[in-house]
Design a protein that fits this description.
about 450 residues, about 20% strand, 20 strands, Aldehyde dehydrogenase, Aldehyde Dehydrogenase, Chain A, domain 1, 14 helices, Aldehyde_DH_dom, alpha/beta, 6-stranded mixed β-sheet, 2 domains, single chain
Length: about 450
């Protein structure tokens, strides 16, 4: 069998090697999932919910060691690893609370001996190809509702979060999910390709646009349900009536939390010219307080860049911005020593000719652009191929609604940013993807409606 080497991105050291899959083992796993799925769908919902409730309890019981594992292989600051695991609990609670209503058969017509009903059946066998940046969140958004609604799941964690993915499988199995109903599939892109080739009923992907587009191309003729949760270039506009200090602190956190490696990280900030200088000063002052260093340390706010190749993307954006006249206020370079570290980086005087303002950075780097007013801000916020989130800071609710309703984005924020709620759908416009997770829609998406026409005479 092939093996997968797992490194600590903060030290460069080898953590371990695990057995990986190949095309033959992927096919065997898919066959096992196919065989097991009908029996799982026949398990009463109360029992399926009991399994997920036990899974939740085991996360609580092992939270510290699960957080340490995630930090060791992704470089996520340890406090943020614990935050992610705690945040997952609320998502699980939401799914447990809402799943009954989503699965209940609906009678939509009943007259003169004719009854019409909608039944909600599982899709069948679904594949989840996942990302490393929030492995518990983006994985749990898929496999928790998928399992609750009676699907079997082939789960491929990112090759940069494999130990975390294997921990999920261990806990799900210990909680009573049959071994063939949730199967971890280990490896990189080649294993993802092998998964696509199986007879499957749905593929739920979280990752980059480039990979998502390749998967869409391969699955196009196959008529397999496909959801793609991809990248973003998430903008926020700070109006001249905003509280400068509050907005700067919130947006610096939104840009740099998780070392800037969030799909909904603030990636572009537009600031009204009347408060631009004051905002830039407050923003830089806030970023200067962010502690960079060992992700395992309690004080660390900026950890390691998980994937080494991303350092070159950040270098290129910095060089491009500088060549085109941006003003570097902070950072702008890799940090010395072992591991993948990048200094928190802030640019002013940026514009849309720069890659920094156009392409996902996925790191602790941000451009602050001056704008003349709402119209220019809206035009710039929409000048992107992505459309995941967008925000506005102003005390004026009407103005915020007027601006945000013109912006192409699946999620919009008023006086907040970098926030996800289990109660709201998570989706993107444009190259940020198709389909959604979370909310009651994010449970229904793992079912297919069957139309029943029933004549009793
Ligand atoms: P990635 O595209 O490199 O990898 C994602 C997954 O795809 C991994 O499991 C990888 O092994 C697999 N893969 C790679 N090539 C494949 C192929 N040809 N066929 C099938 N699978 C293949 O992305 P990443 O670096 O893991 O994640 C970062 C990206 O994810 C960013 O763009 C980020 O914005 C995005 N993201 C989006 C959301 C969202 O909800 N929209 C959430 C988290 C991350």
């Amino acid at each position: 069998m092939p093996t997968l080497a797992i490194h600590n991105p903060a030290t460069g050291k080898l953590l371990t090697e695990v057995e990986a899959d190949d095309a033959a083992s992927v096919a065997a796993k898919a066959a096992r999932a196919r065989a097991a799925q009908p029996a799982w769908a026949a398990v009463p919902l109360t029992e399926r919910k009991a399994c997920i409730t036990r899974f939740r309890a085991s996360i609580v019981a092992e939270l510290d060691s699960l957080a340490a594992t995630m930090t060791s292989e992704t470089g996520k600051p340890i406090k943020m690893s614990r935050n992610e695991l705690n945040g997952l609990l609320g998502r699980i609670d939401f799914f447990l609370k809402e799943v009954d209503a989503q699965l209940a058969t609906e009678t939509v017509y009943d007259e003169g001996g004719m009854t019409e009903q909608i039944e909600h059946t599982p899709l069948g066998v679904v594949v989840n190809i996942s990302a490393w940046n929030y492995p518990w969140f983006v994985g749990g958004n898929v496999y928790v509702p998928a399992l609750l609604t009676g699907n079997a799941v082939l789960y491929k964690p990112s090759e940069f979060a494999t130990l975390t993915g294997l921990a999920m499988a261990r806990l799900l199995h210990a909680a009573g999910i049959p071994e063939d109903v949730f199967i971890a599939v280990v490896g990189g892109g080649d294993v993802g390709v092998a998964l696509q080739a199986q007879k499957i009923d749905g593929l739920f992907f979280t990752g980059s646009y480039a990979t998502g587009a390749r998967i869409a191309q391969a699955l196009g003729p196959r008529m397999v349900k496909l959801q793609l949760e991809l990248g973003g270039k998430d903008p926020t506009y700070v109006c001249e009536d905003a509280n400068v200090q509050v907005a700067a602190e919130s947006l610096a956190d939104g840009a740099m939390y998780n070392t800037g490696q969030s799909c909904c990280s603030v990636e572009r900030v537009y600031v009204h010219e009347a408060i631009y200088d004051a905002f830039v000063d407050a923003f830089v002052a806030t970023v200067k307080t962010f502690q960079v260093g060992d992700p395992a340390s309690e004080d660390t706010y900026i950890g390691a860049i998980t994937r080494a190749p991303q350092l070159a993307v950040l270098d290129a954006q910095v060089a491009d911005a500088q060549a085109k006249g941006a003003r570097l206020l902070l950072g702008g370079a890799r940090l010395a020593g072992p591991g993948n570290f990048y200094a928190p980086t802030v640019f002013s005087h940026v514009n849309h000719s720069m890659e920094l303002m156009r392409e996902e950075s996925f790191g602790p780097i941000i451009g602050l652009q001056k704008v003349s007013g709402d119209a220019e801000a809206v035009q710039l916020m929409n000048d992107t191929r992505y459309g995941l989130t967008a925000g506005v800071f102003t005390p004026d609710a009407q103005r915020a609604r007027a601006i945000l309703s013109q912006v192409q984005a699946g999620t919009v924020y008023w006086n907040c940013c970098d926030r996800v709620s289990p109660r709201l759908p998570w989706s993107g416009h444009g190259d940020s993807g198709v389909g959604l997770t979370l909310s009651t829609y994010g449970i229904a998406t793992f079912t297919r409606p069957r139309a029943w026409h029933l004549r009793s005479v």
